[in-house]
Input
Amino acid sequence: MRPPVPVPTLSRRAKLVIGAVAVLLVLFSVVGTLTNVYVDFLWFEETGFTEVFWTELQARALLFVIAAVATGGFTALAMYLAYRFRPTFRPMSLEQQNLERYRQSLEPRRGLVLTGIAVVLGLFAGFTAQSNWDTWLSFRNSTDFGRTDPQFGIDISFFVFDYPFYRLLLGFGFAIVILSLIGSLLTHYVFGGLRLQTPGQKLTPAARVQLSVLLGVFLALKAVAYWLDRYGLLYSDRGGVFTGASYTDVNALLVPKTILVFVAAVCAVAFFANIVVRNFLLPAAALVLLLVSSLVIGVAYPAIVQQFVVSPSANQREADYIERAIASTRDAYGLSDIDYVDYAQDTAGDPDVGAVLSELRNDTETIPNARLLDPNVLSDTFTARQQIRNVYGFPEKLDIDRYTIDGQTQDYVVAVRELNSDGLSENQDSWINRHTVYTHGNGFVAAPANQVTAGREGGEPNFTTGNLPTTGNIPVEQSRVYYGELMEDYSVVGAPEGATPREFDQPEGGSDEGEINNTYDGAGGISVGSFFRQLTFAVYYRERNFLLSEAVNEESKVLHVRNPRDRVEKAAPFLEVDGDPYPAVIDGRIVWILDGYTTSDSYPYSEQMELGEATTDALTGTGTTALPNETFNYIRNSVKATVDAYDGTVRLFEWDESDPVLQTYMKAFPGVVEPRESMPPELESHVRYPEDLFKVQREILTRYHVDDPVAFYNQNDRWQIPDDPTQATTQDQPPYYILAQRPGDDAASFQLTSPMNAFERQNLSAFISASSAPETYGQIQILQLPGNTPFRGPGQVQNAFETNNLVRPDLTLFDSDSSEAVFGNLLTLPIGDEGLLYVEPLYVRSSGEGGFPLLQKVLVNFGDRIGYADTLSEALDQVFGAGAGELATDSDDIADTVDEDATPEVVPGAEDEAPAEPTDEAPVDGGTTGTTGTPEMAGAVENINAALDALATAQRDGDFAGQGQALEDLQAAVDAYQAAQQAAAAE
Output
């Protein structure tokens, strides 16, 4: 026998160095973790959501401890028992001689090794388990749905709340048994209980008993897994075109799964019996039976039924199960109660002008409110005219909301003038300035969505609320904005009473240099008056100025987590939050309104989707936040949330009172979500149907609008979301908010809309709208167009616009070295029962530094007719004849001009971008004013029109020489017009 190899040892110095490094690593890790947890607690304490903090922490800790102790403990126990019952004498063999060195190495350290294995496995299991805290809370507080699944007749709550938890327990059970089995096998092998190469008996009696018990437990768990697999069939995708148990699953797999439960149980009993019988032949035979049964009745038989019974007539065999899938999917996505309207318009030739004019006379809501201001285009325009100082900014995407002024409801493009730290100049960007001086934005800006200004500055939004201090027809009492979409940095605010205000608040009067400062006195923020708090935040932000700067004093607060979406997600971790918060003025205060969703991935028979993929469109990432790409098949807009822009107060209101998922979380987090009755009436008047939910629903409706299961299977009436025709992308066209009167309604309502194309075609198939009006909130109407007539879809309309003989020359003119054409949102508007009208604004943006879009033209399409003019009224006249525009846009001007005495301050060096002084010229509803301000300008316009007519004639006749001459004349006329315009401006 060879002598054992000596075990290498470390020197005392090496042990000290390694120990010191290990202690430092653990210390830094622990300090960092505890700091993060403590700052989180302070945030929850500030916002009043400590119930969420403690409940989540307790649930995580409970799961962590149970999983860690169970996994590490059982594995260590199994290994200890294997060592405890190791054979005293081992037969001499080469295998045992080779193992002896390992035994001698492990023997002095067996306690340490066993403890280390238990701790490592326990930590891994604990960290894995604690992330499932919401599964545990849902199971513990489950609420009945009051509806049963169509196969087993069990309440849906079992599948949504109980089934995922049972699967979680089962998964950990398998993991513990497998780890224990592996640990036992290794221990028995090293210490002689398992001898693979030694002649004679391979297992000692103790090893046989222990392994038999572990294998028996494993097979018992397998029996439970087969039982749960029966319910898992309701998530099957075997049907191909639908989700849920198919014909094969119900008729060829459900009974075999039940049989396999008993076969696995018999196998488990056989292994337990091996403790007494001491013969592996019986359990081995049972194991072979289980394997053969699972292959024959669990795999082969269902495959045969699918191939030879279902596939030849799948549309008939699967009909009953498709009906289940249609009903369940509609219910899971909130689409069970939809108003389908058969809608037709005459696109074969000219429209019925008389009928349309009659509808236009009756339409006092839709066309007058046709939105010509695109919130996705006008951020630069708002910045140029309402930024006022470089430290302010507007989001890349503005928002649409509605306000009732003097008894009339009007939709507005709205935005908050936020703090934009990225706009700080180089000499402004110090820690003091970034975090203690420039701490907040100031002001609310709004412009009627159907109006632009007249006169020299024609084509701009008519800012009826804006400037600093904020004035206008929407009264704002507290205009300071400490929480907003652009605010990612923290701010340190507050100072002792009597101290000189440090925070920049707003410019002073019209001075380029003067400013008004203030000190924050709101309820928001985490107090950092004590040295311990200052040290905490110094560690948290890795910023020594918390300890050294005089700006941090006994009255200081840290404004932390300032993005409204982040605040709601933190306060309500059980919600998915819509990617587009929007501001509103409620009782004189600016608040952010957000939509919260409850989701589940366990609703039986419902179509599975990826949340991030389903809610992505052409605007995602450019002003809206992408949602996480998580699998789900149930969603409800269950919560409306608000974040106060001044003090950061977060409020959660129960919106969908019938949602069992929300009811479950309200049990888990009592008092966190307020009842719907506590929502202020003014807030309720500003709620919108959420975009991300609507995107999910319209994606589902591309297939699940069909009632007939055979037609559903054949997919011959499938829809498709159109690509955004105004963007150089193949991503989905975003839905648009409009204020319009739906067919069958008595008045206009604020609604979210989207056209739908036929599948793999550019023709229109349907028009979907979801009401945002409080009294009809959530009601979805679908205008279905006949499938045998080629209605134009958005892409075809956009192509018709861009290739029109009148539009194309202007696009050539606008897209030059000094400017570019920018198409706004292509809106689809229902005109009574007569058809769908397309309206699209055309902006021109200067390509120079600081250029911003101005509305120049309006395009209209109805049937085969196209209107293209300076105003919506003129464009409607071109489509429907003289007088149509006057009928459609004859409404009272509801917007007041901005207070003339409150002129925005001019930023030094940017005088050319400063807002014009308010004029006496009234805003124009539906378009820009005429362009004939002087006789010279009028003559130039006539020459431009003549050149365009000549160009169109030359193009029609194929006269290339005439086209060249017409373009030269057009350029000369444009130059003359611009010269006349400049001369008029100089006067």
Remarks:
- The first helix runs from residue 12 to 47.
